Amino acid sequence: MSFVQKKLIGSKNLPEIIKEERTAASLNLEEVSFKTEISLKYLQALESGDYHLLPGEVYTKEFLKKLAKLFHLNEKNFYAIYQQERAIQPPLLNMEYLAAKKRSNFFSWLNPKIIRLGLAGLILLSLFGYLAWEVKNIFTPPVLTITSPLNQSVTADASVEIKGKTEPETTTLINQQEILIEPDGSFSQTVDLTLGLNVFKISSKRRHGQDNNVTISILRTPPSGAEQVNQQNTGSAYN
């Protein structure tokens, strides 16, 4: 019994031809594998165009011969289409291989030893950062600013309020007497004045660090005659 070979359509690629012929014959891949004795994985490679998954050319040529016979196709034309498509695949596959290799090389150094070394490096960096911060605290005094009163002020008042700001968690003193500072570093302290020149030394110091000192002078003058009368009247009102 003779069979009429079908003419292959030149615009179609090999996977399309195989799939269309198999579908037209109402066959699935398992049935084609049974009829041709071609491994299912090689049939899948042919139908998907993954020619790099096929064995040697001798075996592939035999596979195509069996498929051409099963589907009544021209064997030479069938194999010629495969050769044309196979010829343009290596450059594309090489590009994919190089890309995959590049990705693999990028992650290949991430082994447990490298990860441990990386963690140790991070710990050392953190330690050095902390030591650098401590050294900075030791050799750099804290910021200290006096906002009120101005240096070399003159007043007739018996007391004045010294206001300023330093850094939080520092020890702040006025003439060797420690004062309370707010969480944001601000402070306000009322001090008594004697007649004449009053000198106040304000200092701020971190623990285990240098201190910053600011000195202000305030001249207290005697009250005027009217002020003395007011003070006397105020005093007599309470007697």
How is this structure best described in words?
The protein has 239 residues and is of the alpha+beta class. The chain folds into three domains: 14-105, 434 Repressor (Amino-terminal Domain) (Orthogonal Bundle), CATH 1.10.260.40; 112-139; 144-237, Immunoglobulin-like (Sandwich). The protein contains seven helices and eight strands. The protein has helices spanning 14-24, 29-36, 40-48, 57-71, 75-108, 112-139, 225-237, and strands at residues 144-148, 153-155, 159-166, 171-174, 177-178, 186-192, 196-205, 211-220. The strands form two sheets. Strands 2-8-7-4-5 form a five-stranded mixed β-sheet, with no helix packed on it. The mean pLDDT is 82.
Helix fraction bin: 40-55%
- The stretches of 5 or more residues where confidence is low (pLDDT under 50) are none
From the 3D structure, determine the CATH topology of the largest domain: Immunoglobulin-like
- The sequence of SSEs as H and E is HHHHHHEEEEEEEEH
How many domains, as an integer? 3
According to CATH, the homologous superfamily of the largest domain is Immunoglobulins
Number of H- or I-type helical stretches: 7
Shape: rod-shaped
CATH architecture of the largest domain: Sandwich
Radius of gyration: 47 Å
